[in-house]
């Protein structure tokens, strides 16, 4: 007759299970601690870089609201130890030049810095350089601010079919006409935005040479080079294109210091 197995035979299995559970719990706690430490390090680095970026923006003669900095990449502690960061995003709001003049302000300038080198010593002490291999900046100039710069009553700008379109009331030989047309948009000298209105028409325009001359004169009067505020971080404007929200400006630079080296 078979005998029942003693109860103590099951104990080693139970102890083994408990050990596995304890090990899993400890591993989860360790992972949690590392994640928290990683995020804390991110916060410390972002504050240090924010302070240094603020000083550099002021040094370069630009004005803006305090920069908003976000350090990308995970795990972050590895980047700290290596002194090299995958990506640093910087947002500057209300960017203006030190001498405003007729330059339009940029409501938001988004800066994407890649392959950034910054030693732990530099972040701790503020001494040394924070250098980005590549920097790309994007901003949008509102159509309202452009229209205000052109200073023509009733003039409205918008995007139509990928082009900059204009609508404006114009007095031609005593008649109030609505002028419509498009402009060629390009990057001009010294990073200015070049607007050239070459194709304006008005329904009901009198069929006389003087009327066409007056319309052409109006087109020339609103064809201007729009000055931009001096962009920080050596950014050079490469492209300007109309979008539904305004003129999108793209700029870039390479091997750029993001701080003032101590």
From TrEMBL:
Pfam families: LmeA. Keywords: Membrane, Transmembrane, Transmembrane helix. The keyword Membrane applies. InterPro entries: DUF2993. This is DUF2993 domain-containing protein. It comes from the Bacteria. It comes from Micromonospora musae. The chain crosses the membrane at residues 20-37.
